[in-house]
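[job 0412] stage=fold_complex status=start
inputs:
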Amino acid sequence: MPGASTNGHARALKSDPRDHRAGQLRLAIVGSVDDGKSTLIGRLLFDSKQIFQDQLEHVEETSRRRGDGYVNLALLTDGLRAEREQGITIDVAHRYFATPRRRFVIADTPGHIQYTRNMVTGASTADVAVILIDARKGVVEQTRRHAYITSLVGVRHLVVCVNKMDLVGYDEAAYEAVAADFRETATKLDIPDITLIPVSALNGDNVVDRSQNMPWYEGPPLLYHLEHVHVASDRNLHDIRFPVQYVIRPMSDEHHDYRGYAGQLASGVLRQGDEVVVLPAGLRTRVKTLDTYDGELAEAFPPQSVTVLLDDDLDVSRGDMLVGAGDQPQTARRLEATICWMIEQPLVARGRYVVRHTTREVRAIVDEVVHKVDMYSLGPDADASQLGLNDIGVVRLRLSGPLVVDDYRRNRETGSFIVIDEATNATVGAGMITGADN
Amino acid sequence: MSPKTYELTHLRNLESEAIHIMREVAAQLERPVLLFSGGKDSIVLLRLAEKAFRPARFPFPLMHVDTGHNFPEVIEYRDRRVSELGERLIVASVQESIDGGRVAEESGPRASRNRLQTVTLLDAIEEHDFDAAIGGARRDEEKARAKERVFSFRDDFGQWDPKAQRPELWSLYNGRIRKGEHVRVFPLSNWTELDVWQYIEEERLEVPSIYFAHRREVFRRDGMLLAVSPYVQLMDGEERFDASVRYRTVGDMSCTGGVESDAATLESVVAEIAATRITERGETRADDRVTEAAMEDRKKEGYF
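[job 0412] stage=fold_complex status=done
writing structure:
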């Protein structure tokens, strides 16, 4: 990477990574090598001083040996031998870096259509998605697909980096044309917060440091934006959802009657004394204690892991869900869901699978493939009767037992599931619930 | 933690995720085991297991794959910590694998028992019929590990197939396996070395003394300071000398390098780690230097 070895110009960061009071932001960066994704990640890591000296030396040496002609930062992120050999990113890789304001987890995600499932995987836990557009090419089919998947997977914040601005002379009109085109595309999406930033990942313009080459751009550089984007209110703090994960029963003399329901709060704020309903059974009781190793809590919020002790001695076990008495989810034996399919062997009507949702597993039969999304036009293809590898579509499922669900758009934790093939035990699909019926 | 905004610090976020993963193992698998080496990552695992399961006992035993070439300070710490916790420790011995003819000892000045551990580990998993092994590996350690899943599937031969990994979405982990297969589970996947040290500091966890600066007889090899010990032969031109060192990782005495340091307290160690510009494996582990894909190759065979 040109400029990577210079350390003279001022860095915005005087970071003390020891400051760990900061929160965490999960980021999916989507794109292919052609878009400059690896260079962008390399630039973020390098300019925020998160690439270690031995890693950089190693990448420099390997680049020279391969005759790459520049420091190929893709070598840093593409960790598997097959990826280095083929010069592509196959799988989601995770990178970590921190600034004084925030700690970041990057899911480095391949962008080609044949890796749609990897993008869905990387975006499933992301707070923010970053997609790249080549300023010379503008909004292309791949851009629209990336934006569509971001929206589908429920990422609330999207940053569009219009990259390679150096190759269009840092021209404002060129940027504005791409930006206008993207905003037009975005009207069809359900992403409340979209930010566009003109960058040159290669030269570092507007990545960590503000660009001197684009005085017409008045917004913040990428890293500043990522440090400040407000994600706390994305969480659902209204609907109390506590999937029981594990029952803690010490069976010792000291804790003879201790029966605690351990789990991670999926949403809502759960307080001592709250009335809760145990679903799917429908029994009512109250929270006696919110226990942790570090002592009792007055209240718990997502994503805290706690142990709940109840007032009444009820039959509660893994797979049950404690919910608020007021705002109850749907107890469903039929689901409509958008599914991303992840294996060669297609999903077809009458297909039988296992569905894992929160801490519960049930069997499922595909009643109907409603439609498949045409990944080029992004419109529904109602004639499709099956979903193949990397296809996305809407299906109806019938379940062997009840699941306690919310709509995915309302609750990512209780609205999502994975599909497992019972014969191979492989994870074969990812589902987002759009409708439920008893 | 601020009660008004309901936000966790990043360490408490990582902690909660790891507790969730631990409980998922206990709920989904029948015979898990937690790999405990006495190193800093597995020390954190033990605290997370306490947080996940107390006041009950752990729903799994602990296991150490003992190469016989460990630092004595670490073994002493291991046994003390296990007895404090009141949990059960299984020691799987590489020496016994050698004596039983399962593996052959490497010879020469660069001989290491590192690779032999894989056989001992897989044999122990089979002998005890374990279906899950919880380990302290982190994705930031090495680039092959950056692609590793939290629930990482191993076939009947203990092998990892990086190109056929199960996709991992949301916080839904698929631990379904057939008889003879097992999963490796890595609750610290999203932690960095600095996170581990900060957590040790916040939780006031005791760590073996070799993590702090101490004087020791060492020699220089491949730019690393290796401890003089019965397990490694000096080559021509290598000279022993006295230095103030501490260790960033805990492995065999034969292949774990120390770093020159005066950091004698937890606080000063954390400060040094925060300021370092070299990765922990690059600085201290000879075993990863063999080839570019050394870790990937060993992992495919069933290494930790």
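[job 0412] summary: The helical segments of chain A are 37-47, 53-66, 74-77, 81-86, 116-123, 141-152, 172-186, 222-228.
[job 0412] exit 0
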